[in-house]
Amino acid sequence: MSDDIEIDTDDLERRMDGAMGALRHEFGTLRTGRASATMVEPVMVDAYGAMTPINQVGTINVPEPRMVTINVWDKGLVSKVEKAIRESGLGINPQLNGTIIMLPIPELNEERRRELTKVAAQYAENARVAIRNVRRDGMDQIKKAKGDGMSEDDQKFWHDEVQAMTDRHIALVDKALEEKQAEIMQV
């Protein structure tokens, strides 16, 4: 292997890991019938004239497996936070208790569980596409290096390295999807 031409596999690995991190975050926003603070993260509140993430207007807690509470810091925003949750499409009916908004998480019916598994599958497919795009960038680097005089043996080595990295990350996506779908379908 020539010492002067190398492919930046650390960058490719970091970008593939980034796609996995994004997938985990998206999976965290899916409702599974169990309470999770991440499920309300995408909710934006009209606070002080700007759309603000819900976690910047109050403290989000999970006191029980089927309850999320949001302790709103500014009393004037309680009604706006409640409205944002109702309009978010989470399918949760907030209950007020002073400045604390309680979100009881209802059981999911079979049809909604199946819909959520399809959404999870779509998130996983988006992660696979992102990983394949990083793979393509790695292969483009190898082609460019070929033009710069990389030997065929080195090309084969780097091609196999990038492909192995891609296969490993795709397997991680598949495993994460399988676990999330099992979690969603669990009654």
Automatic annotation (TrEMBL):
<dbReference type="InterPro" id="IPR002661">
    <property type="entry name" value="Ribosome_recyc_fac"/>
</dbReference>
<feature type="domain" description="Ribosome recycling factor">
    <location>
        <begin position="23"/>
        <end position="185"/>
    </location>
</feature>
<dbReference type="Pfam" id="PF01765">
    <property type="entry name" value="RRF"/>
</dbReference>
<comment type="function">
    <text>Responsible for the release of ribosomes from messenger RNA at the termination of protein biosynthesis. May increase the efficiency of translation by recycling ribosomes from one round of translation to another.</text>
</comment>
<dbReference type="InterPro" id="IPR036191">
    <property type="entry name" value="RRF_sf"/>
</dbReference>
<protein>
    <recommendedName>
        <fullName>Ribosome-recycling factor</fullName>
    </recommendedName>
</protein>
<comment type="similarity">
    <text>Belongs to the RRF family.</text>
</comment>
<keyword id="KW-0648">Protein biosynthesis</keyword>
<keyword id="KW-0963">Cytoplasm</keyword>
<dbReference type="InterPro" id="IPR023584">
    <property type="entry name" value="Ribosome_recyc_fac_dom"/>
</dbReference>
